[in-house]
Amino acid sequence: MNDSQASPLENPASRVVDLLLVTFNSAHLLERLRHTLMQAERHGVILRLLAVDNASSDSSAAILRRSFGCDVFIQNRENVGFGRANNQLLEHVRSEYALLLNTDAFVSPRTIAMTMRYMDEHPGCGILGVRLTDEDGGLQPSRRSFPTPSTTFLRRTGLERLLALHGARHDIEEDHTTQAECDWVPGCYYLVRRAVLDDIGLFDPRFFLYFEEVDHCRRAREAGWTVAYLPSTSVVHLGGESAKSVSPLCAGRQISALQAESELLYMRKHFGRRGLCSHVLLVMLGDIILAGKDLLRGRGPAFAFRHFHASRLTWRLVRSTAWATRPTR
């Protein structure tokens, strides 16, 4: 980060971290992002900025060039997706750690330094995430369990809450106060060790948007690295900004199609054809349960049967992805 008005670093022993940033119609967020990164640089880090603009139609690229002092800048002619854009920067990573940061994620001044220190103290940790909050301080899911066909079904239908009431909760997502290892952390703040990238690479390019970090954490754990969650520092995450701006995929149903497709690709990759079939059948069963709930609440057939959009969408994507063996874009 370069800024003629910035004060000298407070810590003379500052360390360099490669910051990977992907923009897509993010101009309205970039000044705030730049300000928070400048504050972070005053607390023990020097940011080497590697940026990709995914064919923005606003002034994102111009702002990056003018105000951010990018060490590497790539301007794509089309939107290639979040994972693939980050992959374009992989060959330029030089430092011990790389930080993937969303343009709608704003770090507190000491967050980057604290997370780098944690990684220094835990050499087996390959990927680290932090506590995520919204603007009002409300907690967002920050440490997650790997999805399976059954857990996805339970969460979507609300049956997960029923099981929790009877002491049968199967994951750790509600515990955001404990520093611990976990399955995966969201990609909006994603500190990854360079050795992990050398070992397994970065994101599977089949995931255009959603599930890329879930898959990456799973591969890292399979390779012997741990994934950890640090609740002692936080990041304000607006959420959904990338999906909102995926033009022309801007309507709610179309955004859900991106998520549904990535979910199918993930289930097929990690659970095989049998797992994929289980997932599809559970999506259909989930639609029936959700529709039944609405009918019992007296909301009427028209309202209830809107849930069957998920089944129709899933079957369409099963066909267009050749049973989740290839992406549609």
UniProtKB/TrEMBL annotation:
Pfam families: Glyco_tranf_2_3 (PF13641). PANTHER family: RHAMNOSYLTRANSFERASE WBBL. It comes from the Bacteria. This is Glycosyltransferase family 2 protein. It comes from Ramlibacter monticola. InterPro entries: Nucleotide-diphossugar_trans. Gene3D superfamilies: Spore Coat Polysaccharide Biosynthesis Protein SpsA, Chain A.
